[in-house]
Structure formats: C-alpha cells, structure tokens
Amino acid sequence: MSKFNTQVGIIGGGPAGLMLSHLLHQHGINSVILEARSRQYCEERIRAGVLEQGAVDMLRQSGVGARLDREGLRHEGIEIGLNERRYRIPLTELTNGKAVTVYGQHEVVKDLIAQRLKDGGDVRFECSDVSVHAIEGPKPAINFTQNGEEHTLACDYIAGCDGFHGICRPSIPPGILTGYDRTYPFGWLGILAEAPPSLDELVYMHHDRGFALYSMRSPTVTRLYLQCKPDEDVNLWSDDRIWSELFTRLRCKDGWCPTEGKILQKSVTGMRSYVTEPMQFGKLFLAGDAAHIVPPTGAKGMNLAMADVYVLAESLRAFYRDNSNAKLQSYSRVCLRRVWKAQRFSWWMTSLLHRFDDHSPFDNRRQLAELDYVTSSRAAAASLAENYVGLPMELE
Q1: Is residue 40 predicted with pLDDT exceeding 90?
Q2: What confidence score (pLDDT) does residue 46 get?
Q3: Quick one: 112 and 248 in the same domain?
Q4: Which residues, listed in sequence order, are joined to residue 280 by a DSSP beta bridge?
Q5: Percent of the chain with pLDDT over 90
C-alpha cells in the first residue's frame, strides 16, 4: 500500500470538487481529487445547465470563464406559461443587471478538469473502495484503490463532494446529522433533442395535463421536460408520444411550439428536497449534493454546490493564512442559510407550476390565482427574479 500526503483530500470530481480544488490552488493550498468514474464519463454526463450570476462571476474571476463567455447563452429573462399564453419575467431589468447563463454542467466539468491538469493538479479518476478514517483526529486519511493498487492519502481536511449517494455523509457517526427530506409525487421525463431552439429563453409552462419545461443546451440542441409519475417507465414513451405531449402542453395561442428533432437522450428523474444539518463533522466537510439536493424547477443544484465550495475555500484559506479555524467552524451555519433559502424557492417554484393529483378544487383555483399574480405584479416578479438569478454568496 502506498502512502502520500496533501493538505485537502477531495472526494468527488464533479463541479463542487473540481471548483474547490481550483480555488484552493489559487490560494496556494494543495489538494488531491479522487473520483469514482472515468474522465470521459464525468465530461459527458448531462446534468444541470443554468448558471446563476454568482456562479458565472466565480468562473470568470477564477480564470476558467473563457469558453463559457464564447459558448454560454446569456438569458435576461424567463417566460411563465399559463392558459396557452407566455408571460415574460425580465430578470435583468428587475435585478439591476443580473442574468443567468445556460451552460451545461458537463461543460463546466470539462473546463475545470482541463484547468486543474494544466495547473499540475492531482485529479485521480476511476478510484474504488474509497473510505475515510480518523475524521475526528488531527490527521484524517482516505483509503482508496486505483489501477488495482491500494493507497492511503493523509490530509489535514477532507471535502465530501461525492454526491447524494456518496460515502462521505454516511461516514459521519450516527446521531450527528439530522436529515430534512421531502419527496414529491411526480418526476420529470427529460429529453435532449437535436433541434435548434425556437425561443431564446426558457419557458416554464403550467398545464392541466402537467408541467412542461422548454430549455436549451446550445444553438443546436434543446432540453425539454414533461411532468410524469416518479416511477414512469421511459420505455413506454416513444419519440412520437413524447413530441405529441410536448406540443400539447407547450403550444401557445400565438402559434409558438418547440422545434421537433431527433431525440438524443431520454430519462426519468424523481424529485425530492433534502438537507442535512450540520454540513461538517470533525475534519470532514460536505458540499453540494452530498449535503443537499433540490428539485430542478428552480435551477439551484449546481449553483448551491458552487456557493458551498466558495465558502469552504475561503474558510480553508483563512485557516492556512491566519492559523484560525473560526471560519471553518462556521461553515455549516453560513452555507445552510443560503441552502434553505434556495430550498424555499425551489419548493415554491415546484408548487407553483406542477399539477398535484391530490389538490382540491380550492387548491387548483388558488394555484391559478398565484400564477396570475406572479405574471401581473412587478413586485412578485421581482421576488422571483431575485431568487432565480441567485442570492448573494455570503461569507458571514
């Protein structure tokens, strides 16, 4: 078994782990990333695609925003659909110039991997049998296997960026964490289509048959979703059936509907909200999906991960620069304040737009009234816009 050392061991090579390693490098702090999957898998895995203003600024300011600026699609508004009509929420106008940018998570991962390797970073793919040890002690360690060889990585701190199903959160002793969970009674059937966007902004459509979302990934590829049962069998959905349902739910009275094209990918994703408190124990810090997940309606998943590692990187910088762990001790408190606000917004957007089978006639009318209010009140639209473009990334 080989043994080696670093300052921060990072488990997980998604956006959270890669961005943390990149920020730490800029602060002069060494790290090693251990990722279970191959580099190709990480770079091709299609996930989230909407970046808040703060995440865009972070990528730019840290020197990995060049391709984002060339290829990302800046959106200054979104559209809410009701009764076959679209109502625009002018994000930039309502938030003093802020916007969101459509740029796929896998593209962010490609950029960060390339930068870490260019900077001489230690990013290890296809690591198995990963386990953490002595997280309450002065020198925690990570055991893992790569290419059939066993390794031990000794470090000062461990960052658990390994997702909801990773090993880090379950490695914290029982009785320490409290999980807050909500499972929604529906899922999303999502497709990638080889079809140019027919609108320049996202459309969130409420419909009697269920919610639908029109979005895009590039000038040639659209991303569309249909509300469905959480256990929906995607094999029962032919391409023709998917397009027919999308046209039914998204078509508007002005004649607009999405451009049809070859379906490149389709899958069903269940929807839930989850938060663990605290997000740290001993020398182990959780970030991103390892600590919380959100329904995708509010486009907050990757953005919360970026906010977490921004706080963690600054906290580690303060420790190594000032020999003070005060900011590390407050990591959970600072992150959770933003996490719960994002959870609230994601729950609200989900409740606003989806069809609930158990709603009473009163609930249905109240939902329509709220949609009417959001699309006709500048104050209500401003609240949506402020949350959608992203709340400030705070360090205190």
Answers
A1: yes
A2: 79
A3: no
A4: 285
A5: 96
Same-domain pairing of 235 and 130: no
Q: Residue 34 falls within a domain, yes or no?
A: yes
- pLDDT of residue 319 exceeding 80: yes
Dihedral in degrees, nearest 10, Cα atoms 384, 342, 337, 160: -150
- From the CA atom positions of the chain, what is the Rg in Å? 22
Q: How many CA atoms lie within 13 A of 33 on its CB side?
A: 32
Per DSSP, the residues of 299-326 read --HHHHHHHHHHHHHHHHHHHHHHS--H
Percent of the chain surpassing pLDDT 70: 100
Residue 241 and residue 168 share a domain: no
Mean pLDDT of 211-240: 95
Q: Which of 73, 61, 272 is nearest to 180 (CA)?
A: 272
Output helix, strand, coil percentages for the chain, rounded to the nearest 5.
40, 30, 35
Average pLDDT over residues 271-277: 97
Q: Are residues 219 and 125 in the same domain?
A: no
What is d(CA 48, CA 38) in angstroms, rounded to the nearest whole number? Answer: 19
What's the domain range around 225? 185-271+357-387
Counting Cβ atoms within 10 Å, is residue 133 exposed (0-12), middle (13-18) or buried (19+)?
middle
Please tell me the predicted confidence (pLDDT) of residue 163: 96
Judge whether residue 59 has pLDDT over 90.
Answer: yes
CATH of the domain at 33: 3.50.50.60
- Give the Cα separation of 336 and 275 in Å (integer): 9
pLDDT at 396: 85
Instruction: Verify that 140 and 284 share a domain, yes or no.
Output: yes
Residues 135 and 173 in one domain: yes
Domain-embedded: residue 61: no
Q: State the pTM of this model.
A: 0.96
Q: Which residues are catalytic?
A: 75, 204, 296, 300, 388
Count up the domains in the chain and report the number: 2
Instruction: Based on the fold, state whether residues 324 and 224 are members of the same structural domain.
Output: no
